[in-house]
Amino acid sequence: MTLRLYFPARLRLVGVLAVTQVIGWGTTFDMPGVMARKMAPDVGLGIDTTFFGLTLMMLVIGLTGPAVGEAVQRIGAARVLVIGSAASTAGLALLAAAQGPVGYFIAWTTIGVAGSLALSVPAYAAAVEREGAAGRRTIGVLMIFTGVSSTIFWPILDAVDALVGWRPTLLAMAGLHLFVCLPLHLLALPPTGARPAELETARRPAASLGPDGAARAFLHIGVVSVAFSFTTFGLAAAYLELLRGAGASVEYALWLGTVRPVLSIAARAADLVIDGRGGPLATTAAAALLMGGSFALLLIGVDGAWLLPAFVAIYAFGAGLSAMARAVLPLAFFPPGEFSRRSGRLALPQNIANAVAPVVFVAIIHHAGVAAAALLGLALMAAALASAALLAKLVRTPFPPSARTDTP
């Protein structure tokens, strides 16, 4: 009887959040990849400046993250997600109506507020509210879906734009938030009460830390999160430049670039399969070692056709694991009831890193070369690994049972 009650709720939870997160990321963060060239001349901006809208979005998400985390803890994730869907509708409608730079950046500021309310942290908090620390598995599934949001929405955006133009396309995307995401958040999420008995153990605090230990744990988790965010978001923008600087032709770099997202998603799927044997700290250590190893390959600089494919494969797998680690590491050290507040506070440094990192990595590659960029990446991974080791020392059991997700 318990299983019959449990699995429909989990399937509904995953289904609702997967749909709304794919729509959320696909119509906002991923959207300029297709629409920037169409929007730029109509709002009086160059293409490069048009992409500053994404930087503004990430900065706003970071600045509002702590307040949103508190709001989730106070009124619940579902209500925050509903407000976020309404704000996303407003932001995309404003962007569709923008006639110049001022209107364009006001729209992206609104989209940033909407992203803070509707993307990642509130969605993950909705899972944790309903499943406790066992929500890590749901978060992992969601990250697999959001990893393909651009694959889903780029062709949709391009096709609709070819038919009606970019302004009606953005209005149509606003309609998805209003008529799909908002009702799903409002009506379709499972209730937070009446949890199955199997999950009650998973809802207990992951570790018994005193105030000093909790402060140190939060600091080390912050270091890990910023190191991973700075590296992955920085190289997401500079990836092709890095490969070209390492000797790849334009065509070869593009081909290698298409492999990275597939391997990152595969890493997240693999983590879901084996996470019960390790936990968030094992994922963190594996991510840092893999990405650090990939940067070491670039520094060695051995000639051979295998070097760049090996770098791409190792880095991509590590980057996929790092995204999982950033999302769920707080569950290993803090009670599920504190997840939204802790994650919201972490969003501030993470998203500032996300906004600044692309500029830093591109500048280093252009002015100091690939080796300097690889040294920066290696240093960041060393910092992440050191913080993971310090986190392991804070608790008697580095991978606490409450952080496991092998609960049926």
From TrEMBL:
Protein name per its UniProtKB record: MFS transporter
UniProt-recorded Gene Ontology molecular function terms: transmembrane transporter activity
Key words, A-Z: Membrane, Transmembrane, Transmembrane helix
Entry's transmembrane regions: 12-29, 49-68, 80-99, 105-127, 139-157, 169-189, 217-240, 281-300, 306-334, 371-392
Taxonomic placement: Bacteria, Pseudomonadati, Pseudomonadota, Alphaproteobacteria, Hyphomicrobiales
Top-rank taxon, per record: Bacteria
InterPro entries reported for this sequence: MFS, MFS_trans_sf
